[in-house]
Amino acid sequence: MKTIRLAALVAASMLALPASAYAHAHLEAALPAINGTVAKAPTELDLKFSEELNLKFTGVKVTGPDKKEVKTDDAMLMGGDKTFMVSLPAGLAAGTYTVEWHALSQDGHKTHGSYSFTVKP
After folding, report:
1. Residue 100 in contact with residue 63, Cβ under 8 Å?
2. CA distance 44 to 32
3. How far apart are CA 58 and CA 70, in angstroms?
4. CB contact at 8 A, 84 and 50
5. What is the pLDDT of residue 2?
6. CA 35, 41, 42: angle at the middle one, nearest 5?
7. Pair 52, 78: CB distance under 8 Å
8. Could you tell me the residue ranges of all domains in the chain?
9. Complete edge-to-edge strand list for the sheet that includes strand 44-49
10. How many whole angstroms separate alpha carbon 101 and alpha carbon 113?
11. Residue 92: its pLDDT value, please?
């Protein structure tokens, strides 16, 4: 009988794990696109997440092709607080940019990651 109860407990625990994994704010999409190339320098960065975000503890660091940090402004949430947007300076130079992001979902889970995009010459 103990073996059956233990097996049931293990099975129930395994079913609960995927639900808790979805409680984190995962990056679903971005503009400019993840690993994408754009013909015109973007003036904003939009990061769409799977969960609602806490703006105070969500942010990005954008590094340009010269390895210098690009100044971002006007951070805000859109799309039901699931899309984080920041303004980029006009006239970004051609080259590859790296976006390092960190996010805190409304339920308190932290996530982070990075991706690149390229501005054509």
Report:
1. yes
2. 8
3. 17
4. no
5. 52
6. 75
7. no
8. 24-119
9. 27-31, 44-49, 83-87, 73-78
10. 5
11. 96
3-state secondary structure of 79: coil
CATH topology of domain 24-119: Immunoglobulin-like (2.60.40)
First to last CA, the chain: 70
Backbone angles phi, psi at 3, to 5 degrees: -65, -40
User: Would you say 100 and 114 are in contact if contact means Cβ atoms under 8 Å apart?
Assistant: yes
Paired strand residues for 67: none
Residue ranges in the chain modelled with pLDDT below 50: 5-21
Q: How many helices (H) and strands (E) does the chain have?
A: 1, 9
Cβ contact 39:93 at 8 Å: no
The pair of three-digit structure tokens given for residue 109, joined into one six-digit string: 């889970």
Could you tell me the two tokens for 69? 């940090």
